[in-house]
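4.2 Preliminary Data

To establish feasibility before requesting continued support, the project team ran the inverse folding procedure on a target of 266 residues. The structure was first converted into the token representation described in Section 3, and no sequence information of any kind was made available to the design step. The complete token record follows.
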């Protein structure tokens, strides 16, 4: 092919057809440039195709993490919704002296308050891609920013959960120090929501017979200003957590929808 073009140039020069030679030379240059541009375009398309494959695989992994996140948030919502119900029940009995719940029911409703939920966020795929520098070659920059903010906002959930845990340790447990566990039985943990099997623990406690002669008046603990203050404080914190969880659920669903609707073509 090169010899063919060289022969044409030589013929034009030898025949003194400089005008045609110049036109031909320009045409040849244009042809070479076009060839280079086509080669670059093909190379760029191939690079974009590779980057798009990486991007699609990344978002597939992120969706899997988000599905785990969604299940986790549903558990958190159930846990704290039930907690709010127990606090409401205790406060109702506290403010209505004519109503008697009995020591066993009291034990059942205070027992779940000792437990807290452990905040967990499934961000492995995002953090791995971030650490490897994968984001720089992705086209969905705005979506990456939204994902980044979503994971950053998890710190708020952690802070709210920690606030409840500290409040239980600082306020609730000191109140309950005066309430012996002698009345605990295998039904005590029926209202407890926890990821671990707690029933085995309560059955074990119930199997150890208590032969002490104890008179326990739960009302001395329930109907005190300290308990009322605690219940109201815990209700406020729990309500705040539920609101935070619901907002995160909505944000997560919106992000999942955007990911599924994004352009996946090469």
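Position-by-position output of the design step:
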């Amino acid at each position: 092919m090169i010899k063919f073009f060289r022969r044409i140039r030589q013929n034009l020069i030898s025949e003194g057809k400089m005008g045609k030679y110049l036109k031909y030379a320009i045409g040849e240059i244009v042809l070479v440039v076009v060839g280079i541009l086509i080669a670059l375009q093909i190379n760029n398309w191939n690079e974009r195709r590779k980057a798009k494959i990486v991007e699609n695989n990344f978002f597939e992994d992120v969706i899997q993490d988000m599905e785990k996140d969604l299940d986790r948030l549903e558990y958190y919502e159930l846990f704290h919704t039930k907690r709010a119900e127990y606090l409401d029940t205790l406060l109702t009995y506290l403010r209505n002296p004519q109503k008697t719940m009995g020591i066993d029911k009291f034990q059942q409703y205070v027992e779940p308050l000792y437990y807290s939920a452990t905040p967990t966020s499934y961000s492995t795929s995002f953090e791995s891609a971030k650490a490897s520098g994968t984001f720089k070659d992705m086209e969905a920059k705005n979506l990456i920013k939204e994902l980044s903010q979503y994971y950053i906002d998890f710190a708020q959930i952690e802070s709210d959960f920690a606030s409840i845990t500290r409040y239980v340790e600082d306020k609730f447990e000191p109140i309950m120090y005066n309430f012996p566990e002698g009345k605990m039985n295998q039904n005590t943990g029926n209202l407890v929501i926890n990821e671990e099997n707690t029933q085995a623990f309560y059955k074990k406690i119930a199997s150890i017979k208590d032969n002490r002669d104890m008179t326990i008046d739960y009302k001395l603990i329930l109907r005190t200003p300290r308990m009322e203050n605690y219940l109201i404080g815990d209700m406020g914190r729990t309500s705040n957590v539920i609101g935070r969880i619901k907002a995160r659920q909505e944000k997560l669903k919106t992000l999942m929808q955007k990911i599924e609707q994004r352009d996946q073509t090469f």
